[in-house]
Design goal:
This protein is of the alpha+beta class. About 40% of the residues lie in helices and about 20% in strands.
Length: about 90
């Protein structure tokens, strides 16, 4: 995983929650983790990772705090811990 993807993962898990994360960077970081990111209909993005599937709102602008929280919960559920697995 390159530095930019690690930095994006750490931003998703940062406190306080950031609302200034580019969704393109998140998609690239998820793909680097081995996730399948599919743009579905009706403004949805479906992420499949380690047997888990989750749908998220497809946005072209920065992610909202709620979207970052949802991604964080999804990544925690599949066992991703950036501090442990991908140190900066």
């Amino acid at each position: 995983m390159n530095h930019r993807h690690r930095k994006t993962l750490h931003a998703l898990f940062a406190h306080p929650v950031s609302s200034n994360i580019d969704p393109k960077l998140v998609h690239a970081a998820l793909a680097d983790l081995g996730a399948e990111v599919v743009h579905g209909g009706h403004g949805q993005v479906v992420v499949k990772l380690k047997g888990h599937t989750q749908g998220f709102h497809d946005t072209r602008h920065s992610l909202s705090k709620e979207e970052v929280g949802g991604l964080r919960k999804f990544l925690e559920a599949v066992g991703v811990d950036p501090a442990r697995d991908y140190p900066l």
